[in-house]
Amino acid sequence: MDTDSLNAFTQPAALNQFLVENVITPGEKRKLIKPTSSNNPKLEELKLLLIDWINTTLKEEHIVVKSLEEDLYDGLVLHHLMENLGSLKLDVDKIALTEKKQRQKLSVILEAVAKCLQLEESQLKWSVEAILAKDLLSTLHLLVAIAKHFQPSLDFPPNVHVETITIENTSKGLKTANGVEYITGSKENSEEQSTDDAFDELFSRAPERLDDVKKVFLQFVNQHVEKLGLNVKDMESQFADGVILLLLIGQLEGYFLNLRDFFLTPASTTEMMHSSEAFQLKSESLCSKELLHNVNLALDLLTDGGLLNFSVNSEGESWQTELSGVALLISWLAKQGD
What is the pTM of this model? Predict the structure, then answer.
C-alpha cells in the first residue's frame, strides 16, 4: 500500500467527484472501493449471489432486496436475517425511521453478529457507522461472514478483491492511501475451514454421534491391522504414538516401512537406527521426541499421498485428542471411497 499518498486518482477532478459522493468529515478515516473496481465482474457476481441468498432466506417474510447499499443500511433486513438464521430474538424494534434509532438498531444487530460468529472487535471488518453510511465494502464483509457461518456450503466466487482508497480528513488536508482488499478467499481455504468447522460441530454438539462414528472407525482399523496380529480398542491412546497409524498406512497404501525408520515402542527403552546413526533413549524427554518423530512421519506420508486435506498439529497434546484421530480417519475413508 502506498501510504501518505496525496493523490489516489490520476486526475484531481476524479478525486473531487469521489469525495462529493462519499463525504469524509473532519477527523474521519474511511476505506472505500475505488470507482475503477465498481464494474469488476467477480464483484458483481458476489453481489448478485448475496442478494439471491438474502431473498431466498427471507422469502417467507416477503422481503426483497435489490441493492446491498440501499436496502441494508437501516438494519431492517439484517434484523430479519439474523433472527431467521440464528434462531434468536433481538431486543430492538423491527423498523427504525430516524438515524438515531437506526444507529441503535445496528449496534444491537452487529453485537449479536460478533457474538454468534465468536469474533473479537479487532477481527471486525465493518462498523455501525460504515453500514449506516451505505459503505459497500463493509456491507460485503459483513454479509460474507454471516453467510459463511450459517451456510458454509454457499458457493462464493473465489478470490474476489477490489482496489481501495483509504481517505483521512486531517487538519492539514486529505491524506489518502491506495490498496487492494480481498473479500473472499480461495476455494481451498474455504474447504479446509468448512472441514474444521464440521469436526468442531461434531465434537462439541453431537458427542453421542461421535461415539457411533468411533465404533465404525475401530472396525475399519481392526479389519486391516488384525492381519499384523494387532487390535485397537481405544483410538485416543493407541493412535497417540503414531505406531498404529504408520502400520495402517503401510497396509492401505502399500508403503514398505523399514522398522529402522520409526520407533515401534516409543514409550519404552529402545534403539533406533536411521541413516547409519544410533539414537539411544535415555530420558522421558526423548520418549516424546520419538513419539513426535512417528507422528510426523505418518503425517508426511499421508500428505505426500494426497490423503491429508486439513492441518493436524502433531505438537504437544493436541495430536492426542480424539478429534485429530477422527478427523484424520474421516479424510482417509473419504479418499478410500473415491
Answer: 0.54
Homologous superfamily assigned to 2-184: Calponin-like domain (1.10.418.10)
* CB of 112 closer than 8 Å to CB of 86: yes
Q: How far apart are CA 75 and CA 187, in angstroms?
A: 30
Q: What is the pLDDT of residues 233-268, one digit of tens each?
A: 877 777 777 788 888 878 777 777 777 888 887 754
Q: Superfamily for 189-337?
A: Calponin-like domain (1.10.418.10)
pLDDT digits (tens, 9 = 90+) for 187-198: 545 555 554 554
